[in-house]
Amino acid sequence: MDSIIEQQRQAHEDIERLEQAIVDMMLQDLSKHRYKLIREQKIDSLLDQIQTRSKLILDLDRDESGLRHVEMDSIAEHQFTEFYSRLGDIRSHNRRNPDVAVHPPEIEYVKYIRNPEEIEEQQKARMARENALAKSEDALEIPFEDNLPAEQTFVSEEDEHRLDTMFSGEERLGRYVDLNEQHELYLNVRGAQRLSYLDYLAQFTKFELYPRKLKTSLQYAAYLDSLRGYFDRFFARAMPLFDLPKTTAEAKDKFADAWAAGTVLGWEASDDDHKLLCTVCNKKFEKETTFNAHMNSRKHQKAAARSEDGNASSDKQDAQKQAGDKKAEKEREAAWSESLIRTYVLVLADKIRDTRSNVERRQALTEEERKQEVDEEEPEFEEDNEDKDEQIYNPLNLPMGWDGKPIPYWLYKLHGLGVKFSCEVCGNAIYRGRKAYEKHFQESRHATNMRRLGIPNTRQFHGVAAIDEAQSLWERIQKEKKQVVASTDTFEEYEDSEGNVFNKKTYFDLKRQGLI
Asked: Which residue has the higher pLDDT, 160 or 228?
């Protein structure tokens, strides 16, 4: 068993290595969101280890058992005797275990220095070089480096698998929030406004729109608990380094002051609350007519008479007081949950705004376009063992045919697939070849974007890809239509009984005046 001083020294060394590992990871310039998120989770794990070792050092410094003090006195009084005694213990341990491998602690922390993106690029380059050598007919038999172990980084397969199962498809690894479940609970709350998911994302923090009477219901409490719990879990998954306890404590202090002053949004105290309160029956009324009817009722008059005579039941008064305190506690808990959710939303304002934009954009996409978008944003580099030896050589990046092979170059030139056309209306989408470009004008994506611009997707706009050109053409068409309508009054001719010929406008003007 190590001595107390050795345990403290080892804990201090571990803390220094953990801090250096955090610095090494923070200095890495990462571009992929996946690796950045794994890095934050790793740093959060290392910080927990630092706190654990720091707590161990403090416990050993307190020396509640007194062993550290005894050990220090022994070393001070018998320096050389203690030194050679411990040296003998080390030698005897090595003689008993001569084959035990020594693992330097530096090896465990080397993986935090390597950049996973650079290692990934090196592996791709090595695979491309080996494939080129394998296909070369004149290549010599050079031993490949397949058997060499891959350099380890802080990103492991377990981390990537856990990351894939940690987020839903809508969250996109923490880029957006997924409040579909909370939206369903919101729709089940009595008195809630029927909102679409897109409108709900813009208004779900406007709790002041709910009447206070409904905020004490079980459905509303379950809805707030679900919303608050989701944000707590989202911070832990997508923002592990965010100081959530500090934010919660600050929000709690602000809420306590606002609640005492009666200025919490949606729970403001008013004079009507005291005017419509029956102190004898311990009841609060929302309408003045109901309050006046209660004051004139026999039940209230009897309770007032008993209160004046001093014969009121103390048990009943205690029960009414407990019921009032319980209701006030429910209201305070609901108000605190609303205030905390507003604080969370302020922190996540950018992600919620991006979520609304993403939901609005994805509503205009087809199912195939959504799948294609997922494949493009999160490419998976997987190797198929069966086709590993039959990789297709395609240096010109030609499109694939029906047989899974690149189409002939002459066919590529015949269809003009080397010419790329862009459409500004479709978000600067690129189309390869004139045929695909002409075809997309009749597709739903182009038609939807034209409707958003307030322009019908008619044959007149076929071939117009710029937004400015489409708007100017639409203005010119509308102007020409107005001119045609105005000119119809002068094109038509009318003849009176005397044979005089007038245009339509002049004829009806003279006829209304009774001149013809």
From this structure: 228
Dist. CA 321–CA 327, nearest whole Å: 10
Instruction: Give the pLDDT confidence of 242-300 residue by residue, as tens digits.
Output: 999 999 999 999 999 888 888 888 787 654 454 566 666 656 666 667 767 777 777 76
> Helices then strands (H, E): number in the chain?
22, 6
Residues 6+ apart with CB under 8 A from 74: 82
Query: Looking up tokens 């489409």, which residue turns up?
Result: 470
CB 422 within 8 A of CB 429: yes
| Between residues 34 and 383, the one the model is more confident about | 34
- Chain length of the chain: 516
CA separation for the pair 357, 349 (Å, rounded): 12
* Token pair belonging to 40: 């934050």
Q: Which of 312, 341, 137 is nearest to 224 (CA)?
A: 341
Highest mean pLDDT (candidates 366-375, 441-450, 486-495) = 441-450
Contact between residue 268 and residue 262 where contact means Cβ atoms under 8 Å apart = yes
Residues whose CB is less than 8 angstroms from the CB of residue 257 and which lie 6 or more positions away in sequence, other chains included: none
- Give, as one character, the DSSP assignment of residue 422: E
User: Could you give the CA distance from residue 14 to residue 54 in angstroms, rounded to a whole number?
Assistant: 10
DSSP state of 100: P
Residue 290's H or E segment, with its range, is: helix 288-295
Helix, coil or strand: residue 248: helix
**What one-character DSSP code corresponds to residue 425?**
T
Report phi then psi at 427, rounded to 5.
80, 35
Q: Which residue, among 53, 65, 73, 62, has the nearest Cα to 12 in the 3D structure?
A: 53
| 3-class SS of residue 503 | strand
- φ/ψ of 502, rounded to 5, equals -130, 160
409 CB contacts (<8 Å, ≥6 apart)? Answer: 396, 398
> Considering the entire predicted model, what is its pTM?
0.59
Q: What is the pLDDT of residue 491?
A: 66
